[in-house]
Amino acid sequence: MILTGTDFLGKIFKNLQLEGAQLVSNEFHDCKFFHCTFVETIFQGCRFVNCIFQHCDLSLVQVPDSLFTNTHFEDSKVIGVNWAKAKWSATNFSDSIGFSKCVLSHSTFIGLNLSRFLVLDCMALDVDFRECDLSQADFSGTDLSESLFLGTNLTKADLSRARNYHIDPSQNILNQAKFSLPEAMSLLYSLDIDLSDE
Questions:
Q1: How far is CA 165 from its chain centroid?
Q2: How far is CA 70 from CA 23, 24, 108, 194, in A?
Q3: What's this model's pTM, rounded to 2 decimal places?
Q4: pLDDT value, residue 193
Q5: Closest by alpha carbon to 178, among 161, 198, 196?
Q6: To bridge 160 with a disulfide, which of 43, 53, 79, 180 should be the other Cys (CB 3.0-4.6 Å)?
Q7: Alpha-carbon dihedral of residues 127, 51, 55, 112, nearest 10 degrees?
Q8: Which residues pair with 8 in a beta bridge?
Q9: Rounded distance, CA 62 to CA 82, Å?
């Protein structure tokens, strides 16, 4: 199924099933998606402005040249998505997209400006954040197991309630970032030091 060049304003989509579909140059303004399935759907050159996805499955979607502005994902599966292929504004990512109680595992944000990025209470396993600007990002309640941080700017980022992260202080910028014990002990594992419990 291919849907091309259709604009939607203020529309509510419920239980929409578009697995493996292709949407080309569609625009969605102030739309809400509830319990929709977009598994392996391709959003080619689409625009999402002030949209909300709740309880949706967007696993393995492709987003080439698609633009997201003030779009939020809640209680949704957004697994295996290469967000670096989307079209982002020249300013930053923070006003574009946010995630709450989502599964983001096996996705990539490599090289993006994610300043003030919100990833709240999410499962973010094996997510690629290399070379990202994550300054002032908030990862509260998020599981970051096996996620990649290299050349990442985490200045003033809040990881005080995040867990299972592995971040090398010598390979990333951590100025004024927030961490809490005992998870913050993982920061020491990358250092060439001898820890003693005596």
A1: 16
A2: 20, 20, 19, 46
A3: 0.87
A4: 46
A5: 161
A6: 180
A7: 0
A8: 28
A9: 7
Check: CB of residue 126 under 8 Å from CB of residue 144.
no
Name the residue with higher pLDDT: 90 or 178.
178
Q: Is 111 strand, coil or helix?
A: coil
Q: Which helix (H) or strand (E) holds 14?
A: strand 12-14
Tell me the two tokens of residue 5: 């060049």
User: Nearest CA to 134 among 190, 171, 182, 177?
Assistant: 177
3-state secondary structure of 43: strand
Model confidence over 47-69: pLDDT tens digits? 999 999 999 999 999 999 999 99
Tokens of 173: 């910028």
Name the one residue in this structure whose structure tokens are 């203020």.
10
Domains contained in the chain, CATH given: 1-87 (2.160.20.80), 109-189 (2.160.20.80)
Q: How far is CA 120 from the centre of its chain?
A: 10
Q: By the 8 A CB rule, do 112 and 83 touch?
A: yes
Fill in the amino acid letter for 144. Answer: L
**CA-to-CA separations, 30 to 6, 11, 17, 33, 126, in angstroms, rounded:** 14, 7, 20, 10, 31
